Amino acid sequence: MARLIVEQGDKYLEWQFQAALAADQRATTSASIFIGFSAALFVGVITYWADQKDCAVLLGGLLTAALLFFGAGCCFWAALPRDFYSPGNEPARWFGVVDQKISVALGREATNYQTRIDVNDRALGKMAQWFKWGTIVACIAPIAGAIVWIVFSF
What we know:
Radius of gyration: 24 Å
Structural class: mainly alpha
Distance between the termini: 73 Å
């Protein structure tokens, strides 16, 4: 039974590791898209304002670009390296328990895996929160910019 428990813990750590890699990829891709839109919008709005001197477009566009930039920052923050455990263990960690019963050694390893799983769960939760807020802010950005444009246009 102890071997099965350790095996399941290892599988769970493997799943967490794969989920973290996917989350990092999703966050960096979204951040790249948001920052690209932000930069393009910023340049376009400044260029338009230089020609037309339309303050409503300027304010709405700059707010939208700033919110997209902030959303990108949140997504990049979500992908920053954190304390995160990978599956498996180093063989040297087992040397101190060679003379113990296998069930005791595996029980300790199961406890070790649970500690790692808990740390990973907290890290994944933090990553998810930053990514969620980054995407929410980026999705709200065009609406906020349109509202500012409407308010200052009339």
